Amino acid sequence: MTRADGRATNELRKVKITRNYLKYAEGSVLVEFGDTKVICAATIEEKVPPFLKGSGEGWVSAEYSLLPRSTQSRNVREAARGKQTGRTHEIQRLIGRALRSVIDLKALGEKTIWLDCDVVQADGGTRTAAITGAFVALVDAINSIWGESPKPFPVKDFLAAISVGILPAGVYLDLCYSEDSTAIVDLNLVMTGSGQFVEVQGTGEKGTFSQEQLNEMLAVASQGIEVLLDIQKETLGPVSWKVGREG
Amino acid sequence: MTRADGRATNELRKVKITRNYLKYAEGSVLVEFGDTKVICAATIEEKVPPFLKGSGEGWVSAEYSLLPRSTQSRNVREAARGKQTGRTHEIQRLIGRALRSVIDLKALGEKTIWLDCDVVQADGGTRTAAITGAFVALVDAINSIWGESPKPFPVKDFLAAISVGILPAGVYLDLCYSEDSTAIVDLNLVMTGSGQFVEVQGTGEKGTFSQEQLNEMLAVASQGIEVLLDIQKETLGPVSWKVGREG
Amino acid sequence: MTRADGRATNELRKVKITRNYLKYAEGSVLVEFGDTKVICAATIEEKVPPFLKGSGEGWVSAEYSLLPRSTQSRNVREAARGKQTGRTHEIQRLIGRALRSVIDLKALGEKTIWLDCDVVQADGGTRTAAITGAFVALVDAINSIWGESPKPFPVKDFLAAISVGILPAGVYLDLCYSEDSTAIVDLNLVMTGSGQFVEVQGTGEKGTFSQEQLNEMLAVASQGIEVLLDIQKETLGPVSWKVGREG
Amino acid sequence: MTRADGRATNELRKVKITRNYLKYAEGSVLVEFGDTKVICAATIEEKVPPFLKGSGEGWVSAEYSLLPRSTQSRNVREAARGKQTGRTHEIQRLIGRALRSVIDLKALGEKTIWLDCDVVQADGGTRTAAITGAFVALVDAINSIWGESPKPFPVKDFLAAISVGILPAGVYLDLCYSEDSTAIVDLNLVMTGSGQFVEVQGTGEKGTFSQEQLNEMLAVASQGIEVLLDIQKETLGPVSWKVGREG
Amino acid sequence: MTRADGRATNELRKVKITRNYLKYAEGSVLVEFGDTKVICAATIEEKVPPFLKGSGEGWVSAEYSLLPRSTQSRNVREAARGKQTGRTHEIQRLIGRALRSVIDLKALGEKTIWLDCDVVQADGGTRTAAITGAFVALVDAINSIWGESPKPFPVKDFLAAISVGILPAGVYLDLCYSEDSTAIVDLNLVMTGSGQFVEVQGTGEKGTFSQEQLNEMLAVASQGIEVLLDIQKETLGPVSWKVGREG
Amino acid sequence: MTRADGRATNELRKVKITRNYLKYAEGSVLVEFGDTKVICAATIEEKVPPFLKGSGEGWVSAEYSLLPRSTQSRNVREAARGKQTGRTHEIQRLIGRALRSVIDLKALGEKTIWLDCDVVQADGGTRTAAITGAFVALVDAINSIWGESPKPFPVKDFLAAISVGILPAGVYLDLCYSEDSTAIVDLNLVMTGSGQFVEVQGTGEKGTFSQEQLNEMLAVASQGIEVLLDIQKETLGPVSWKVGREG
């Protein structure tokens, strides 16, 4: 059974990661999952939040935003309204947590890496695209200051994320916006290069799901992530060998 | 193997739900999971958010807050700072989504039910305690306007939530604050009275987890939720028979 | 002549102060004046506002908030709206000023004591209940760091507060919400253990009052405060002997 | 015994009320108490706050602000900081309450009168100068729409306010800034033309006061207000006859 | 004399306007002036600001933002800080005013067109690039609802903008960031297709300028705008014929 | 041809600058252009913004505000709304830039001078009146700390500003509010004592203008500024000799 765009139910949209998308950032990509497009920029800052001062450890923090017209109807600019929505808070916390899970914050040292994920076009799956793209920007940023240093590289493993959902017709991988609006259950999976889970967020606002359905979604999502990990490695080329290198 | 407070690893803390805790609210409880104490108040408002006007459907919305000295060190009052933290946004969105999953919004009609979850004391598991307690307040609030009406009761099923985590020594149910700080993986499960999942949020910020570990956590959490469902039913007494009643 | 709840016009509601209400705070109470219930928590912070840095003096600051459903109809959460109301500002300034009047800020040293007064249920008189309860929490907090130290105890005198009003039928002590809404004149009195006035705030928004009426209100209020002072002393037990102790 | 500026302890500073100070406002004054200067503008708006819609009643609301350099050292502009201070809230609530006490809101009808009190120079007593001046602006604004109408004039009585304090050397009327900083007790009195009290706010942050001292302060303040009422009447000229006119 | 990038002093950088850059917006472009890149999106909203309700006239409003890492060092996200900077306000007011000058707001009817200008990369001249690009997005948006309608097309004339500056070495057109930082005088010119001025903003913060220098800057800028107008026309193709068409 | 108030088209309104208008500020004026009245206060602060720390250079920063009833209909107080409007931001940035252009920030040393421009009455031309008046306050403030010091005086030249507009009947100098509302083009000119331009801001929101019209406006405005410079010199008296003095 196929979908509006001809994909199989367990097939990703066309994924493309354009490296070094921005001139000034220490690392940056444009990541595209079909019509979903997110600019991810990594910035290295030589200070840490107050709770880490003097600890010798670094931090990774993410911010997320939708351009006003990334969406079907215009969404009000958060800067004009004077505050970020709850959805933005929820997503940027997820992105930050996910990326910190593969960073050795001690090895990084007292630096903060900011990951700015700005959605240019939103056709479903923006948070998982952001995580997948931000990982590449993060590796490039750290590589820009690590160079050929013999110290352990602070990125411990690869990391990618994908969404999967239960639609009336079954389990679908990598939902686009129109599919997402008919989904009964929605699950976002963040997984490492070694196949371990980092975040599992399954939500049944319009329905519920069983243990079996959860397992089926995770299986389909894991396959999708395998493909994403390959794309990340190909994008990073030789730099990808540094990930997980222990010095 | 036992814990600091003598519990077995798959044992809940002492849970207590005090019904009608507030004089003015349509429904309210004080819910206690050990030293974690949350006041949950349900308010019925005769209007809906703009996107539902004229739809005939209702809405359920949650707000969450920590009293400044519910925590070990004082946390700055959000009203004084002028904005809610990302953590607050994330939690109140989770509570709202979870409770909407068991409400028949059409049957409710054009009303909003506000669920205010104010944490008086925070010793771990405040968001799951809030969901478990808010469910009871919500049933009472709806009952206060439904009375003996023969129409289908808009609460379709029971709903409770619990946390579970992977500690160095294994999987633990219902983490208190000191356990939570040593957890490698943290999972919150929201489940219905019929054993279906509503939300599965597993997070491995300090580590990762496998499919097997996920399944183990879910099994332990499901057992804990069975106990919570019984406590909810006992607390609600005869009103509990209305849940799921189709008219 | 008696009132809806059977009290005499110069009689307080049932007042109860539950000490050590919270697990983490250095001092805390639940104070109840009839159905009015306020949680007062005292936190000691080892720093002072900028204008006191290096002065050797301490500070006492209060914050006040209504839980959204402490009131008959739900009041919008200030943290969600992004600012505190004028009423909140007015009340928390009053509480802070009142408590500072009995503290020897020099003896306290460069510390700030925060008094968080969170109203769980609001049936009139929340600001005077908050002052009366916060005093006990403040004594306990200072005692927690003073212990058996021979230095002068920084609490110079007892302090309590009560409201009184002119209703069509005469002067009434300790107004509950329904009485408060029919009051022509409203007066809050803050008084010390030695019978001196700290704050007199008489307000005639719906009417005016003469010097004689002012004196009558003050006489009735003073009697009420005598009772409150006794309750504070009984609540504090032996710790009450430290108040006013000069070393 | 005399003061730095040669006044007797029960003597006002030189008070001057310049009527029609602004070109566009319906009523406006510059009020000066010595070096304290406040611009008071009254604006009539043909709508009321939500809680009065359809009630047939009007409203009076006040706003207060210090120009950044009205004070000895520059105070940060509230508009730049994004919020009003607690002190501002407290003062503008006092001004609004005081003026509403002499307005027949039913006779006014569904209108709001805004009173903007902007302090150009602050040498003590700004809130009482604001009330005294705003009263004149308010009468002029109402007169501008009432004209020769035979309906009862909605201003029921005159209203003025003054500060008085207990200094080490005794009770002083109308404190300037340098006196205010040495005051032990500070009292603001708002009184009507018929000698009734509207607001009595006595505050002993740096000390306390007895019933006798309260009475002494009120006696001195009342005399000061008599003088202010005469100045208001002289300023208003024939318009002053309308105050209290019942149609 | 040539510049770092080999341009003549009166030569534009490479300018490129990619039409229909976004999938959902009624009109959108990516405009590039060398390394300066701005996404301009036009949204049509079927309502107008309050001051135009019932007037039959429409409105054009612009918003401007820098992505956090569009700049050399990261600039704090305005949505996270909770307010827009003064620079943002100044620029978005300029963009809005400029575009309204060529729109027949009566012919447009009661609609608002929002122009969102989001800077992806900032290498100088972002506000003039935004105006030049937003014009194309605006024409496309209006064309999307006008189609082949015989009514007058509401865009009266073409509009483009460019910056010019006085550097130590003379007058330079279209300053990049490094040139801009050494400029003594900076001028932004907005001009119509018929060669009329809409905005002239010359600023000499680091120096001053004479009437002759002003005229020289305007002459150079006007030439640059001629080139931009040609690029706009080429980009719009046949749609460009509608601009200025009177029905 | 004359105007409503009898002025010639190239004639200023009556301009008056009252020096030392405020008691506490280091420099202050009330500046009047006809019915437009602005209080300008200069404050010297012994610190600089972060980007200048340790640079040895000073800063000049301006803030602008309309009193709520300075305008024909009341404008909402920015402090109450919690943010400044875009117009306020635009104007205060202009004032700051303009005044910095004649200050030798190195000679000033690490100090910030704040210029608070508060509009008491707004009858057109408030921003140019503010610049013209703030210059005098600024000179007085610097003089208050420079005294007879032999070091170069940090004010390099005089500075004044005026508005000019194209009305249906031609070019008019110094527009009052009613003229301003019928203007097709509006231009603000800031000029130094030596006749150099500092800011030229010509805006044709309701029309456009040619190079010739621009030149005509600048010529008329320059004449107006000559008159303003004379008034500034007369106001400053002997202090005016210090402006431009090189030590």
UniProtKB/TrEMBL annotation, chains A, B, C, D, E, F:
Q: Which residues bind phosphate?
A: 87, 125-127
Q: What SUPFAM superfamilies does the database record attribute to this sequence?
A: Ribonuclease PH domain 2-like, Ribosomal protein S5 domain 2-like
Q: What is the lineage of its organism?
A: Bacteria, Bacillati, Bacillota, Negativicutes, Selenomonadales
Q: Which InterPro entries match?
A: ExoRNase_PH_dom1, ExoRNase_PH_dom2, ExoRNase_PH_dom2_sf, PNPase/RNase_PH_dom_sf, Ribosomal_Su5_D2-typ_SF, RNase_PH, RNase_PH_bac-type, RNase_PH_CS
Q: What organism is this sequence from? A: Sporomusa ovata
Subunit (UniProt)? Homohexameric ring arranged as a trimer of dimers.
Q: Which residues form a coiled coil?
A: none
PROSITE patterns referenced in this protein's UniProt entry, alphabetically? RIBONUCLEASE_PH
| Exoribonuclease phosphorolytic domain: residues covered | 11-141, 158-223
Chemical reaction(s) catalysed: tRNA(n+1) + phosphate = tRNA(n) + a ribonucleoside 5'-diphosphate
GO biological process terms held by the UniProt record: rRNA 3'-end processing; rRNA catabolic process; tRNA processing
Q: What does this protein do?
A: Phosphorolytic 3'-5' exoribonuclease that plays an important role in tRNA 3'-end maturation. Removes nucleotide residues following the 3'-CCA terminus of tRNAs; can also add nucleotides to the ends of RNA molecules by using nucleoside diphosphates as substrates, but this may not be physiologically important. Probably plays a role in initiation of 16S rRNA degradation (leading to ribosome degradation) during starvation.
The answer to whether keyword Disulfide bond applies is no
Gene3D superfamilies hit by this protein: GHMP Kinase, N-terminal domain (3.30.230.70)
Q: Which UniProt keywords apply?
A: Nucleotidyltransferase, RNA-binding, rRNA processing, Transferase, tRNA processing, tRNA-binding
User: Which GO MF terms are attached to this record?
Assistant: 3'-5'-RNA exonuclease activity; tRNA binding; tRNA nucleotidyltransferase activity
This one is known as Ribonuclease PH
Task: State the family named in the UniProt similarity comment for this chain.
Answer: Belongs to the RNase PH family.
Q: What EC number(s) are associated with this protein in UniProt?
A: 2.7.7.56
Q: What class of enzyme is it?
A: transferase
Q: Record's superkingdom?
A: Bacteria
